């Protein structure tokens, strides 16, 4: 019992730490990527190549003055960012970060928890994130914030439907909701026992999913809730100090988790091609797998940023039309197609 | 499945939730809160159904929960629409002003 | 077949009225009523006086309820059918001098009423009887409501609810009996008789009251009469005539046909009570009549008194009494019709019904006065008028039943004489006043209505035997069957 | 214990504790460490430097509301597809046809919505 | 079932008619479809068909209710032509009504609690919207809101009851439940009986039995008159159909649990609304209370003999026809006014005797005066109750029906007695035709009740 607890504690602790770390360095990465794409230098003062910039940012958040507008609802004003942060942190629990490690005769899974409702849990937690934004925006009692919050909620819930639908086609294939199993099903990959990554079977589903993931994270080209040209800061206009930090953190954590989910669902998770043909022992493969997974995640995080600095923002009606009138029908079509093919191949 | 919690607990919990919901509907005056109380009643039912379903090893209870959830969602949609309409006509969601039709 | 024709011819005629122009409604209705009279006369001619129920029809109607369209005519029915068919053309004729709004509806309702009345008198199925009984209420209610006088809404409603309430209790009683019939339940009259007689005395008593209340309200017998004076007063005169001339006989007929034979045990137990109630009613109504100021109201109360006597006579369960009741029903029907018509004539010309404002009509209208005198004498039961035969027989049977009651009931003749003569004195004799000075005597159309009535009053008074013969065998059969039951019970 | 239902959720609870702890500690830390120099203007809501007017809690476009309602409806309908999708292989062809019927009905409603202009934002 | 398919298809088509060039043909199409549904129901007569793994069973009772519901709806469409006159709302209103009919049919044919629940909800959800379809009127909104609240509140009770019964018997299938009950006459857990009572309460809300009726008058008087007509006919038929379906087939084995409760409810339902109706000046409210009162008679029939559903069906038929007649006149008289008092009927006989005669006949039928349909309805209820030894309850019912006469006659008296200066009303040929049909039906049902009574005797 206690051993189990300690193992889980370590796992949870490390995932927690890594999440924070990745989120912090994503901000740095984002600025560097932006600079790179715009042919600038980017942050370079704090430490070599500005490598301590995230730490400096963090300190600044902590030491800044806390401002809570008089007309706002104090409790909700504080609750908003906390909720956003909390849900963001909770979403990553079910990601299988790697295969099992065998130490002695004990098998340790690198997934914190493998619920049989895995994907549903992720969706459930992510959709609570809307509350963080909505509550924060409404509590500020600022017109910009309110508009931003409403936009954010409308956008996020709209894309949630398409996202949910796009997953269904995948589930038809995998027959399970558990992320661990979905990962395991993609083992091997190209060569070996010829398990392809799901993206091969579900290109359309992947496309829909990643578009929705962008929208869910309020990332450009879907960052309508905080588009500074119209809404100043959107839902976090009134926020300062660590509460603002939480919102920003939450965004980057979400990006990180989304990338992880995408990698797991469509890109084989911790599996890599020819993994079973290298003749390495199980633990080594698992560790390599984890590294590979982080590689994939990093790529998707980079992809998020790449898109951000490449594609301009949508107009709001374009955004809604894309979500409702294109992605949802497409997702339904994808379900139909997948089902049909499955039936025919059987 | 290990049924560590006795069925009675679920029953009492559901009954308590349901009662809270009923009392809420009867005593609260804010339409939104009444909505929520009704949802609470339905969720008490859901809880009960799921518990029974587990203890009877019969999936139909859970399917019924799906039905209830779907219908409750539709009901909320209609209810909120009515509420908006009411707000437009009265600028309030306090049901006390809806006394015009009393005999 | 003849029975069906008798029942439904008025209804067809009533529907026809709506096809033609409203202006011609009057004459079509009169023609129809006269044809109906002819049909009834054919029935009289064809009727076998010793033959029991005749002209039977028995058509299955609502089998799931055990309801058959079962009707037949025996002596008792025939007399009342005859009363109806004679009075309805007279009533229609009496309305010729007036123009009513929506005449098609008015005459249609009268004819529908006639249908229902005849249906009540010939039905030999419990539920069918009940149906006609209720249907009779609808047209008369609307006649009173639409063409009535002041405050008619409230008053006619009271009338409606009273009678409906009574009949609903009757319905419960009938249904209870229905479920007592053996095998597939049926409402057939004989089956109901058998079922009723086999009940325990408590059940019989309950059913007795359930039915008696319905009939008593319809008649009306004291203390169920409170709807009656007001309703008679506000109704248009044709409505009053229908109510008092024919409709009240439904109640008496109900007692004879559907109460006494069905629960003889109940009648044996409660008959005396019924008689006492009736006698109290006679005295009460007569006393009230004496102090009435309104002519129409006065006649209304006198009607209660007469009906009380009839009711008392029937509950003696004596052949003479029942026969007397039959004759008295006919006699009362025509006399009260004539009286109301005379009141209407007076009202038309003087615009008042208050006795205190009348007087001196005798000088201006001798014919009217003569007619009134004859009718009045009939009403107070002077010998050689129809009233005498009936009242004599009734009081006679009451004497035999309980001499004391007979004596008290006999007072009615004296009281009747008192209020009728007072009426005569107040209205006809005395000084003419501004209202009555220019009183015009009877017109031709009015004579056409009143002369036959006067004739009938006198003929029946002198030679009632044919009428008595018609009902004799039916009454005897009825009473014998009851006495057989009560005898076997003892 | 390891395999029981509740134990599966234990790590999630742990994670929750970690996250909560982090949030609470950070919030308290900023509250304690940051400077506190309040002024009326600073505590006012931001409206691009102009004095802020009125309450921000004004009724907003009904479209957003409509979107919310539609989301609730569609999202709940999507729930029905998950069990079906998981059991797709067992249900086979009849299940597929039934679900297609279901989705078709859903699409009828969807089509109706679009045609009715419930999702029309450009106006 | 074929009827159900047709009606469902009809609903979808009328929803989509918005976009084709089909709007003009919509009413005709709906009428044809509903007629087809009636015919299909008639063709299925005497065949008991089971669908969706026994979730829906179309036996004779279900088919009869289906036909009744469809026919009432046809008549209702006829009387509420102007409700669909506005172009913008024609298709959605039509489809809402049709979907309500779908719900009604399911409520009459369910064999599984899930279907009961779905049927009720499909019906109610459409009605919530229809009740509020006069968007600018506060009373309409209010009616919709109250209806919604009470509807979902009742659903809560119903569901809790269903959940408890499921827990006790392990099934949602009515027949399985009935078998379980029969198999364990003493072995059912206590909460099963609580479940039955909760379902009773839930359904009592739906059929608006006292003391769960208080929403009905508000909702009936607030909704547009045509919608009220729909509620008090089709919806009431469906609710009662569902009620008797579950209680007469499934819970009849545990009759002792609910019989007494239902008797109390029944007596209250007879007495209270009939007395309250007397004090109403708003005709719609009066009819609402009257319609609650009629539930009392139906319950009387049900209490006295739960398995004899023929009587109830006949009663519902007569009630629907009479109510439709009453409401069609009410609708024609009201014009544009929101609240229609008894005074609106002043002198109606002079203004338009068609209307006056129709509503007179309708009210007389509702009051139970022979030879109209309503009389035989009441008669059969009373006869059935007397037959099963409930004579004292019948006496209560008789007294309340006399009270009923009182308020029905207020309208009649107003029409024939009072004078009015309001302008007379002219009717179109179609309206006259409708009134004629309704009068004819009222008489025909009264004169030939065997046509319906023998349906259930096979």
From TrEMBL, chain A:
Its EC number is 7.1.1.-. It is found in: Cell membrane; Membrane. It is a multi-pass membrane protein. The keyword Cell membrane applies. Its main location: membrane. Pfam families: NADHdh. Keywords: Cell membrane, Membrane, NAD, Oxidoreductase, Quinone, Translocase, Transmembrane, Transmembrane helix, Ubiquinone. Coiled coil: none annotated. The chain crosses the membrane at residues 6-28, 75-98, 118-140, 161-179, 199-215, 244-267, 287-306, 326-345. It catalyses: a quinone + NADH + 5 H(+)(in) = a quinol + NAD(+) + 4 H(+)(out). One of its GO terms (molecular function) is NADH dehydrogenase (quinone) (non-electrogenic) activity. Belongs to the complex I subunit 1 family. NDH-1 shuttles electrons from NADH, via FMN and iron-sulfur (Fe-S) centers, to quinones in the respiratory chain. The immediate electron acceptor for the enzyme in this species is believed to be ubiquinone. Couples the redox reaction to proton translocation (for every two electrons transferred, four hydrogen ions are translocated across the cytoplasmic membrane), and thus conserves the redox energy in a proton gradient. This subunit may bind ubiquinone. NDH-1 is composed of 14 different subunits. Subunits NuoA, H, J, K, L, M, N constitute the membrane sector of the complex. This is NADH-quinone oxidoreductase subunit H. It comes from Ohtaekwangia kribbensis. The gene is nuoH.
TrEMBL record, chain C:
The chain crosses the membrane at residues 69-93, 105-123, 129-147, 159-179, 206-227, 239-260, 272-291, 298-317, 323-343, 364-384, 404-421, 448-468. Residues 124-412 form the NADH:quinone oxidoreductase/Mrp antiporter transmembrane domain. Pfam families: Proton_antipo_M (PF00361). It is found in: Endomembrane system; Membrane. It is a multi-pass membrane protein. Keywords: Membrane, Transmembrane, Transmembrane helix. Its main location: membrane. Belongs to the complex I subunit 4 family. This is NuoM family protein. It comes from Ohtaekwangia kribbensis.
UniProtKB/TrEMBL annotation, chain D:
It comes from the Bacteria. It holds the Pfam family Oxidored_q4. Its EC number is 7.1.1.-. Its main location: membrane. Keywords: Cell membrane, Membrane, NAD, Quinone, Translocase, Transmembrane, Transmembrane helix, Transport. It catalyses: a quinone + NADH + 5 H(+)(in) = a quinol + NAD(+) + 4 H(+)(out). It is a multi-pass membrane protein. The chain crosses the membrane at residues 12-33, 64-84, 96-114. It is found in: Cell membrane; Membrane. NDH-1 shuttles electrons from NADH, via FMN and iron-sulfur (Fe-S) centers, to quinones in the respiratory chain. The immediate electron acceptor for the enzyme in this species is believed to be a menaquinone. Couples the redox reaction to proton translocation (for every two electrons transferred, four hydrogen ions are translocated across the cytoplasmic membrane), and thus conserves the redox energy in a proton gradient. NDH-1 is composed of 14 different subunits. Subunits NuoA, H, J, K, L, M, N constitute the membrane sector of the complex. This is NADH-quinone oxidoreductase subunit A.
From TrEMBL, chain E:
Its EC number is 7.1.1.-. It catalyses: a quinone + NADH + 5 H(+)(in) = a quinol + NAD(+) + 4 H(+)(out). Residues 111-404 form the NADH:quinone oxidoreductase/Mrp antiporter transmembrane domain. It is found in: Cell membrane; Endomembrane system; Membrane. It comes from the Bacteria. It is an enzyme of class 7 (translocase). It is a multi-pass membrane protein. NDH-1 shuttles electrons from NADH, via FMN and iron-sulfur (Fe-S) centers, to quinones in the respiratory chain. The immediate electron acceptor for the enzyme in this species is believed to be a menaquinone. Couples the redox reaction to proton translocation (for every two electrons transferred, four hydrogen ions are translocated across the cytoplasmic membrane), and thus conserves the redox energy in a proton gradient. Belongs to the complex I subunit 2 family. This is NADH-quinone oxidoreductase subunit N. The lineage of its organism: Bacteria, Pseudomonadati, Bacteroidota, Cytophagia, Cytophagales.
């Amino acid at each position: 019992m206690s051993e189990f607890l300690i193992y889980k504690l370590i796992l949870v602790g490390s995932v927690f730490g890594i999440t924070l770390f990745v989120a912090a360095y994503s901000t740095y990465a984002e600025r560097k990527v932006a600079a790179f794409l715009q042919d600038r230098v980017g942050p370079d003062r704090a430490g070599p190549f500005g490598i301590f910039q995230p730490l400096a940012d963090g300190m600044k958040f902590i030491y800044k003055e806390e401002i809570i507008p008089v007309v706002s609802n104090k409790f909700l004003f504080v609750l908003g960012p906390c909720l956003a942060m909390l849900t963001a942190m909770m979403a990553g629990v079910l990601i299988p970060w790697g295969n099992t490690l065998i130490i002695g005769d004990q098998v340790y899974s690198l997934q914190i928890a493998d619920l049989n409702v895995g994907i549903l849990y992720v969706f459930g937690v992510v959709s609570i994130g809307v509350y963080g934004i909505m509550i924060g925006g409404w509590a500020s009692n600022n017109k910009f914030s309110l508009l931003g919050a409403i936009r954010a909620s409308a956008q996020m819930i709209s894309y949630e439907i398409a996202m949910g639908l796009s997953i269904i086609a995948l589930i038809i294939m995998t027959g399970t909701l558990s992320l661990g199993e979905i990962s395991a099903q993609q083992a091997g990959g190209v060569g070996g026992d010829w398990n392809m990554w799901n993206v091969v079977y579900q290109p359309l589903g992947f496309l829909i999913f990643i578009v929705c993931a962008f929208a869910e994270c309020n990332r450009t080209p879907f960052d309508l809730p905080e588009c500074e040209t119209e809404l100043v800061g959107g839902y976090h206009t009134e926020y300062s100090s660590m509460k603002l930090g939480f919102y920003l953190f939450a965004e980057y954590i979400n990006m990180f988790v989304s990338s992880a989910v995408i990698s797991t669902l469509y890109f084989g998770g911790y599996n890599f091609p020819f993994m079973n043909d290298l003749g390495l022992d199980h633990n080594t493969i698992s560790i390599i797998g984890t590294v590979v997974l982080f590689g994939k995640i990093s790529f998707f995080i980079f992809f998020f940023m790449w898109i951000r600095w490449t594609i301009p923002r949508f107009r709001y009606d374009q955004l809604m039309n894309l979500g409702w009138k294109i992605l949802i029908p497409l997702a339904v079509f994808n379900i139909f197609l997948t089902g049909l093919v499955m039936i025919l191949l059987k | 499945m290990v049924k560590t919690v006795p069925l009675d607990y679920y029953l009492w919990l559901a009954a308590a939730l349901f009662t809270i919901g009923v009392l809420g509907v009867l005593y609260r005056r804010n339409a939104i809160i009444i909505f929520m109380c009704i949802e609470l009643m339905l969720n008490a039912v859901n809880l009960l159904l799921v518990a029974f379903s587990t203890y009877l090893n019969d999936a139909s209870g859970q399917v019924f929960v799906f039905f209830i959830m779907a219908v409750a969602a539709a009901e909320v949609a209609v209810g909120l629409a009515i509420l908006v309409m009411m707000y437009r006509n009265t600028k309030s969601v306090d049901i006390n002003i809806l006394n015009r039709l009393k005999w | 077949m003849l029975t069906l024709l008798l029942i439904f011819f008025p209804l067809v005629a009533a529907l026809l009225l709506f096809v033609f122009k409203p202006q011609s409604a009057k004459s079509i209705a009169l023609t129809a009523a006269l044809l109906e009279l002819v049909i009834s006369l054919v029935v009289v001619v064809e009727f076998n006086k010793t033959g029991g129920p005749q002209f039977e029809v028995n058509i299955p109607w609502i089998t799931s309820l055990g309801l058959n369209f079962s009707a037949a005519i025996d002596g008792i029915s025939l007399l009342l059918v005859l009363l109806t068919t004679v009075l309805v053309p007279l009533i229609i004729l009496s309305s010729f001098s007036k123009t009513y709004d929506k005449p098609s509806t008015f005459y249609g309702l009268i004819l529908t009423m006639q249908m229902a009345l005849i249906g009540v008198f010939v039905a030999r199925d419990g539920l069918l009887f009940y149906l006609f009984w209720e249907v009779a209420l609808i047209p008369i209610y609307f006649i009173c409501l639409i063409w009535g006088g002041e405050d008619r809404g409230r008053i006619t409603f009271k009338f409606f609810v009273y009678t409906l309430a009574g009949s609903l209790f009757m319905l419960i009683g009938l249904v209870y009996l229905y479920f007592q019939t053996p095998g597939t339940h049926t409402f057939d009259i004989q089956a109901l008789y058998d079922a009723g007689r086999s009940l325990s005395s408590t059940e019989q008593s309950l059913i007795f009251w359930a039915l008696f209340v319905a009939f008593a309200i319809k008649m009306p017998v004291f203390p169920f009469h409170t709807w009656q004076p007001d309703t008679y007063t506000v109704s248009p005169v044709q409505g009053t005539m229908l109510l008092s001339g024919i409709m009240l006989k439904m109640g008496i007929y109900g007692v004879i046909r559907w109460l006494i034979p069905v629960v003889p045990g109940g009648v044996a137990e409660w008959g005396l009570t019924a008689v006492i109630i009736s006698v109290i009613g006679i005295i009460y109504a007569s006393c009230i009549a004496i102090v009435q100021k309104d002519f129409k109201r006065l006649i209304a109360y006198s009607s209660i008194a007469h009906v009380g006597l009839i009711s008392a006579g029937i509950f003696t369960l004596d052949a003479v009494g029942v026969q007397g009741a039959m004759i008295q029903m006919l006699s009362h029907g025509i006399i009260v019709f004539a009286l109301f018509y005379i009141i209407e004539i007076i009202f038309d010309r003087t615009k008042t019904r208050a006795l205190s404002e009348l007087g001196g009509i005798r000088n201006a209208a001798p014919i009217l006065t003569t007619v009134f005198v004859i009718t009045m004498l009939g009403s107070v039961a002077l010998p050689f008028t129809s009233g005498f035969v009936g009242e004599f027989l009734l009081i006679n049977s009451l004497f035999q039943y309980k001499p004391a009651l007979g004596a008290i009931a006999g007072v009615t003749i004296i009281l009747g004489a008192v209020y009728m003569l007072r009426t005569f004195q107040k209205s006809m004799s005395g000084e003419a006043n501004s209202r009555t000075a220019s009183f015009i005597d009877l017109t031709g159309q009015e004579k056409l209505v009143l002369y036959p009535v006067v004739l009938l009053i006198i003929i029946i008074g002198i030679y009632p035997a044919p009428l008595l013969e018609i009902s004799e065998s039916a009454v005897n059969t009825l009473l014998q069957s009851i006495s057989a039951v009560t005898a076997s019970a003892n | 214990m390891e395999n029981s239902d509740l134990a599966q959720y234990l790590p999630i609870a742990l994670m929750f504790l970690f996250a909560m702890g982090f949030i609470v500690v950070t919030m308290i830390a900023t509250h304690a460490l940051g400077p506190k120099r309040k002024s009326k203007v600073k505590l006012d809501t931001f409206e691009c430097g102009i004095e802020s007017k009125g309450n921000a809690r004004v009724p907003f476009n009904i479209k957003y509301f409509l979107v919310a309602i539609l989301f609730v409806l569609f999202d709940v309908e999507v729930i029905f597809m998950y069990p079906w999708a998981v059991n797709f292989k067992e249900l086979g062809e009849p299940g597929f046809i039934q679900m297609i019927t279901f989705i078709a009905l859903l699409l009828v409603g969807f089509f109706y919505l679009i045609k009715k202009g419930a999702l029309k934002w450009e106006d | 079932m074929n009827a159900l398919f047709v009606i469902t298809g009809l609903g979808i088509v009328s929803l989509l008619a918005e976009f084709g060039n089909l709007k003009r043909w919509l009413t005709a199409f709906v009428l044809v479809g509903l007629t087809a549904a009636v015919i299909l129901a008639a063709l299925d007569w005497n065949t008991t068909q089971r669908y969706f793994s026994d979730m829906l069973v179309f036996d004779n009772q279900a088919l009869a209710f289906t036909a009744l519901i469809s026919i009432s709806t046809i008549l209702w469409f006829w009387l509420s032509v102007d409700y669909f006159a506005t172009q913008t709302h024609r298709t959605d209103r039509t489809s809402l009504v049709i979907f309500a009919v779908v719900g009604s049919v399911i409520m009459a044919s369910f064999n599984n609690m899930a279907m009961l629940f779905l049927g009720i909800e499909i019906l109610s959800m459409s009605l919530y919207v229809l009740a509020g379809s006069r968007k600018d009127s506060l009373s309409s909104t209010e009616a919709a809101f109250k209806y919604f609240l009470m509807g979902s509140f009742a659903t809560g009770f119903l569901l809790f009851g269903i959940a408890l019964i499921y827990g006790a018997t392990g099934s949602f299938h009515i027949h399985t439940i009935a078998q379980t009950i029969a198999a364990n006459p003493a072995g059912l857990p206590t909460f099963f009986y609580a479940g039955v009572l909760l379902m009773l309460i839930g359904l009592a809300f739906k059929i608006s039995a006292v003391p769960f009726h208080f929403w009905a008058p508000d909702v009936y008087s607030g909704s547009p008159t045509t919608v009220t007509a729909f509620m008090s006919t089709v919806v009431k038929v469906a609710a009662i159909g569902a009620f008797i379906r579950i209680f007469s087939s499934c819970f009849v084995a545990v009759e002792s649990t609910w019989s007494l409760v239902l008797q109390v409810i029944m007596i209250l339902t007879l007495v209270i609304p009939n007395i309250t109706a007397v004090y109403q000046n708003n005709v719609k409210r009066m009819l609402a209370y009257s319609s609650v009162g009629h539930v009392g008679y139906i319950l009387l029939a049900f209490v006295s003999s739960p398995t004899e559903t023929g009587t109830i069906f006949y009663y519902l038929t007569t009630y629907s026809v009479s109510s439709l007649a009453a409401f069609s006149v009410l609708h024609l008289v009201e014009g544009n006014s929101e609240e229609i008092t008894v005074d609106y009927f002043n002198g109606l006989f002079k203004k338009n005797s068609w209307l006056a005669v129709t509503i007179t006949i309708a009210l007389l039928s509702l009051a139970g005066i022979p030879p109209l349909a309503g009389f035989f309805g009441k008669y059969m209820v009373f006869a059935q109750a007397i037959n099963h030894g409930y004579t004292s309850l019948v006496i209560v019912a008789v007294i309340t029906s006399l009270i009923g006469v009182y308020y029905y006659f207020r309208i009649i008296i107003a029409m024939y007695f009072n004078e009015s200066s309001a302008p007379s009303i002219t009717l179109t040929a179609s309206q006259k035709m409708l009134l004629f049909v309704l009068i004819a039906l009222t008489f025909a049902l009264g004169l030939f009740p065997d046509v319906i009574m023998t349906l259930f005797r096979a």
